[in-house]
Write a structure and sequence with these properties.
169 residues; alpha+beta; PH-domain like; 17% helix; 32% strand; elongated; PH-like_dom_sf; guanyl-nucleotide exchange factor activity; FGD1-4_PH2; FGD2 protein; Znf_RING/FYVE/PHD
Length: 169
């Protein structure tokens, strides 16, 4: 089953009386012989339509994180990406192979807060006004990398970092 969130492609399916049904891009190409949906060609992709694999290969930072819910008990584990071509936005995918992000967070203007380690969890937050997102990284080093990348994006710094600015000759 392919939902509207996952695909814009439709093709006639024989088992369903040749009615149009939503299908993935590969099935659309196979069933119709078209290589691209004509009315989509040249259109700008929606904010959540950037494929995770495509974006991850050209990202400032990407990895698995957990986004805790409001009460800090449970949360969503997913694939988080800050793309090079859109460095002011954090995209959240359910998995690295997903075609579309299920959520995005504009980072500009947020504050990044470190949180003390609790129960071996590496916690940090994004906060702006009353909006607070709490994240859990797998390691302390990964937490530091995310905090640095998010802080740069939140400050509006859009160019990639130099390899090691502090390293001397």
């Amino acid at each position: 089953v392919v939902c509207a969130r996952c695909s814009d492609y439709k093709a006639e399916l024989q088992y369903d009386g040749n009615r149009l049904n939503r299908v993935c891009q590969q099935c659309y190409i196979f069933l119709t012989g078209h290589t691209v949906l004509e009315d989509r060609e040249g259109k700008h992709k929606g904010i959540l339509e950037k494929g995770a694999a495509e974006v991850s290969s050209r990202s400032l930072l990407c990895s698995s994180l957990q986004l805790l819910d409001k009460n800090g008990k449970g949360g969503t584990r997913g694939w988080f990406v800050i793309p090079q071509d859109d460095p002011l936005v954090l995209y959240i995918y359910a998995a690295p192979q997903d075609v579309r992000a299920h959520t995005s967070i504009p980072l500009l203007g947020y504050q990044v807060r470190d949180m003390p380690q609790s129960e071996s969890r590496h916690l940090f937050q994004l906060a702006q006004s009353r909006q607070v997102f709490t994240f859990v990284a797998d390691t302390e080093e990964l937490k530091r990398r995310w905090m640095r990348a998010m802080a740069r994006s939140a400050a509006g710094i859009t160019h990639p970092e130099e390899e090691d600015e502090d390293a001397g000759p």
